[in-house]
Amino acid sequence: MINIGIIGLGAIGQRLISQFEKHSEVKVVTVCDQLESLAKESAGALGGIPFYTDHKSLIDHPLVELVYVAVPPKFHYHIVMDILKANKHVLCEKPLANSLEEAKEMAQAAKEAGVIHAMNFPLNYGQAAAKFAELLKQQYVGKLRRLQLTMNFPEWPRVWQKNDWVGGREQGGFVLEVGVHFIQQTLKLFGEVKNIQTHLELPDNPEKCETGIIATAELADGTPILIEGLSQIAGNEYIGFTAYGSEGILSLENWNQLRGGKFGEELKGILFENITPKNLINELVKAVNGQDAELYDFEVGYKAQQVLEQLRKM
Ligand SMILES: NC(=O)c1ccc[n+]([C@@H]2O[C@H](COP(=O)([O-])OP(=O)(O)OC[C@H]3O[C@@H](n4cnc5c(N)ncnc54)[C@H](O)[C@@H]3O)[C@@H](O)[C@H]2O)c1
Q: In this structure, what CATH number is given to the domain that contains residue 176?
């Protein structure tokens, strides 16, 4: 049994609480949020466990072995550094940090602390993304000609994520919040990303995040990457991560759908029920117990941050 403490009890913190609750080998033993009412309510829902408003008290709780950090990006650095100083295992939300410098320091400190350090990049544990990777490996699209990420948001912030930071320029925006998942997938599946050129559409209000991006980059062999997105537009939300190849097209759409087709065919939905990807919590348990595990660590987070910060350059 692994005893977990959680810092940050907002949208994603609650989502992970319900996943931890369903798992027999982990137990949430204490929670923390700077909003006392939320900390109290969440602790009550978990059977009246201790709660805090100050992250250091949670870290120091003697039962806590692993801390899950689900606060907004600009608070990741200080909290994670305190966890590492206490030599406790850590699961951190993406993006790793709110700047490249912070991310570098965190990745270094995590390595030196000798603890388990993992990122929550859920695509790595999703069926559609696993099938996407498998088909690419089987040369479904043939030789890759172009990789494209399209992000369309009729409304940003999205209806379910109306908080005070995700629409702000300092630590929000869809490039940071959504784009980073696909940056990490690109690095994992295709390797290095170079020659990044970015053009952001920014509102006049300097406090508000981008409303558009057109960026280009290249894989190591020169294969072009196009990253484009717009918010505050007509239509439906659409996130498409598409590999165009010499023989076909394969698209990971809206996180959990796949569509593809060979040259000359219509694009059609691709099924993936037979795929059983790994599960983040199982992998965390394995890692804490000293077994091999499929985790995406702070080095992965740092590499994604390197690309992310170039895309976010004003
Ligand atoms: N992995 C994913 O798929 C995914 C999805 C959504 C969000 N996220 C990431 O998760 C993090 C949180 O996002 P969210 O949507 O849940 O945000 P949120 O604003 O809904 O929740 C954040 C919570 O953290 C609390 N908080 C802020 N600073 C704190 C501090 N110093 N100490 C204690 N509590 C503090 C806030 O009061 C709030 O309750 C962000 O980094 C975001 O990028 C990841």
A: 3.30.360.10
pLDDT in tens, 297-310: 999 999 999 999 99
Domains contained in the chain, number: 2
Instruction: Provide the token pair at 259.
Output: 């569509």
Residue 161 alpha carbon, nearest atom of ligand 1? 15
Atom of ligand 1 nearest to the CA of 73: 41
**233 Cα: distance to centroid of ligand 1 (angstroms):** 26
What is each CA distance from 243 to 128, 144, 240, 309, in whole angstroms?
Answer: 14, 7, 10, 23
Number of helices (H) and strands (E) in the chain: give both, helices first. Answer: 10, 14
Domain that residue 7 falls in: 2-121+279-297
Expressed in angstroms and rounded, the spacing between residue 75 Cα and the centre of ligand 1 is 9
**Interatomic CA distance for residues 99 and 1, integer angstroms:** 35
Separation between Cα atoms, residue 3 and residue 22, nearest integer Å = 14
> Could you tell me the pTM of the whole model?
0.97
CA of 74 to the centre of ligand 1 (A): 10
Residues within 6 Å of ligand 1 by CB: 7-13, 32-35, 38, 55, 70-73, 75, 93-94, 120, 122, 161, 163, 177
Q: For 20, what's the count of Cα atoms within 13 Å in the CB-facing half-sphere?
A: 24
User: For residue range 141-170, what is the model confidence (pLDDT) as tens digits?
Assistant: 999 999 999 999 999 999 888 899 999 999
